[in-house]
Design brief:
Layout (H helix, E strand, L loop, with lengths): L2 H13 L2 H7 L9 H27 L20 H25 L4 H25 L7
C-alpha cells in the first residue's frame, strides 16, 4: 500500500471517528455536561486540524482525497453520557493502535511519517483526556 493510500485511510479514520461525531452532534441534553461537551468539542477540533494538514498534503501531491462517511452512530443518541464516553475510550484506543500501525508502514516517506507522528500524538493525548472524562466521579486519577 502506498503512503498516500495509508495517509488517506488514516485521514478517514480520524475524520469519521466517534469523537468527531460527538463534536458535530452532541447528542445529550443532560444538565451538568457542559464541561464535558466543551472538552469533547475542543479535542475534536484538534483532530480536525490534523486531518486538515493530511488533506492539504495529499491535495498538494495531486492525490484524490476520500473523506469517508460516518458509521451509523444514531443509536448512541439515547445512551447515557458515561456509557458514551466508555464507548469513545474503546473506539479511540483502537484509533490510536491503527495510527501507530500506519506510522510503521510509511517509514520511508518522511512527510507521511511526520503527519502520522502528529496524528498519533494528538489522538494519544485526547485518549488520555477521554479516559479522564469517562472515569467515575471520585475515582483515583
Amino acid at each position: 500500500m502506498s503512503s498516500h493510500t495509508i495517509l488517506n485511510t488514516a485521514l478517514i479514520e480520524v475524520y469519521r471517528s466517534l469523537l468527531q461525531y460527538a463534536g458535530e452532534s452532541w447528542p445529550w441534553a443532560s444538565a451538568g455536561s457542559e464541561e464535558t461537551e466543551t472538552a469533547v468539542r475542543k479535542m475534536a477540533q484538534e483532530e480536525r486540524e490534523v486531518v486538515s494538514r493530511i488533506f492539504q498534503h495529499l491535495d498538494a501531491q495531486g492525490v484524490p482525497v476520500d473523506l469517508g462517511v460516518y458509521p451509523d452512530n444514531s443509536a448512541l443518541h439515547y445512551v447515557s453520557l458515561p456509557f458514551f464516553l466508555q464507548r469513545m475510550v474503546s473506539e479511540h484506543a483502537d484509533l490510536d493502535k491503527s495510527l501507530r500501525y500506519y506510522r510503521g508502514q510509511v517509514g520511508q516517506d518522511p512527510n507521511a511519517s511526520r503527519l502520522l507522528d502528529e496524528a498519533v500524538g494528538v489522538v494519544e493525548r485526547n485518549l488520555a483526556t477521554i479516559r479522564q472524562l469517562a472515569a467515575p466521579a471520585g475515582a483515583a486519577a
